[in-house]
Design a protein that fits this description.
Strand content: under 5%
Structural class: mainly alpha
Number of helices: 7
Helix content: over 70%
Largest sheet: none
Order of helices and strands: HHHHHHH
Length: about 180
């Protein structure tokens, strides 16, 4: 009975998490219209004018949407252990996406936050840790250290998933 209840809870939680990820990915993909006055970008016209913000924004938002979805299946052992070849391929998409696009884009975007020094610092630290944790995870799997790879990838994906938790927090406190 307890096992069945636990399995039901885990399935329900996974379904909710997947739904939230899907919403965020859909929102990210709406920016493929490349309209610089659309949505959130409407508020960032001064940053866009610098020439730095828009490439960082698209690099971060569009790629992070993809890696958020890919990462969900990567950390879910029900899928990743069943198809190791796909796990490796999607893992490369995730790692390269974080290391070369999403984390650097997020770091650059941090310099255009005007919410005070603590918010600025938190986004800088998050971007740097995201980058570093992902690199460490890649190095660990290249050494064949699966357990450390898994630990570092959980840390990396937790920072990826921060996009979802930030929106939940923003939604909850702006109602």
């Amino acid at each position: 009975m307890i096992t069945r209840l636990k399995n039901t809870f885990v399935w329900l939680l996974g379904t909710i998490v997947f739904f939230l990820i899907a919403l965020l990915v859909f929102n990210a993909l709406t920016y493929l219209n490349f309209d610089f006055t659309y949505g959130f970008l409407r508020l960032k016209q001064a940053a866009i004018a610098t020439g730095w913000y828009l490439p960082a924004y698209y690099s971060h938002v569009l790629v992070a949407g993809v890696i958020l979805a890919v990462g969900f299946f990567q950390v879910n052992t029900r899928y990743s252990l069943r198809w190791p070849r796909y796990h490796r391929g999607f893992g490369k998409i995730y790692a390269y996406g974080v290391i070369f696009f999403a984390a650097p884009g997020g770091l650059i975007m941090s310099f255009f936050i005007d919410r005070g020094p603590w918010v600025f610092a938190s986004f800088v630290v998050q971007s740097v840790f995201w980058f570093v944790f992902t690199i460490i995870a890649v190095k660990e799997i290249l050494k064949g250290n699966v357990s450390e790879h898994k630990r570092w990838m959980w840390r990396s994906y937790s920072l990826t998933f921060a996009a979802v938790t930030l929106r939940l927090y923003t939604f909850a406190f702006t109602i």
